[in-house]
Amino acid sequence: xxxxxxxxxxxxxxxxxxxxSEVQLxxxxxxxxxxxxxxxxxxxxxxxxxxxxxxHSPMYFFLSNLSFIDICYSSCITPRFLYDLLVARxxxxxxxxxxxxxxxxxxxxxxxxxxxAMAYDRFVAICNPLxxxxxxxxxxxxxxxxxxYLVGIVNAVVxxxxxxxxxxxxxxxxxSYFCDIPALLRLSCSDNYVSKxxxxxxxxxxxxxxxxxxxxxxxxxxxxxxxxxSITGRQKTFSTCAxxxxxxxxxxxxxxxxxxxPGGLEAVEQDKIVSVFYTIVIPMLNxxxxxxxxxxxxxxxxxxxxxxxxxx
Length: 312
Description:
Layout: E1 11-14, H1 21-50, H2 58-75, H3 78-86, E2 91-93, H4 94-127, H5 132-135, H6 138-164, E3 173-174, H7 181-185, H8 193-226, H9 231-259, H10 269-292, H11 295-311
Parallel strand pairs: 1-3
Antiparallel strand pairs: 1-2
Helix pairs in contact: 1-2, 1-3, 1-10, 2-4, 2-10, 4-6, 4-8, 4-9, 6-8, 8-9, 9-10
């Protein structure tokens, strides 16, 4: 059969998580709570940073942008997912599916590069403290941030155009709760070998390149920390990196499991579970990780709480 004789589908059905209506309602309440916590935590982090002296530090400039990306990242997936949990037929149009994929891929890639930029910032701050104000100027920070967004946009264009230039002639049931690339590639009627390889190569490039930057940065950081004679000094220096390392491990671990395995397109149910972590759980956890593991954030938070108590 030739592609010219195929009829392109005009909509997709998102299967999501199957189950009885009471199970769907329980999932709705659970993920609604997680989404609200994501919004409250990340908006709170942005407000805290921009109303305190923290906003002048490159580290917290990047952290506030990480919170902004997490809000957008979660919002392009979760509201639609919540709606689908309440309706019987979970239909998404062809164009809406492509749009959701573009935003998701763009923001996910941007977050990968932003985490690498944050690792470089910590490397400069700890290994070259005297040059830190000269190297990490406000203009450099804006350029690094712009570069993260630019690479994210380019990667999203490549993946979205590569996926939606394929033919989808049916069935149109996407075995996921959002328009994820592996789930859509399984539905393609045309040869999707090139698209699979593009997904693997580009995802591997994004993850490996940023992982190399992060590993090298933290290798130098560890070397510098071990040369500090005071145990208290070591703990204080490395505590500023602990939250970032935890966020990196969670995010890169799930993305690698999902996208950087050549045979990973065949595992369906585990893909859905893993994708919940990087689309819903991790954006919720990031503010908690950074607030609990970072002394400056905790100090700023206590300061704001004391101010509010005094005003009352």
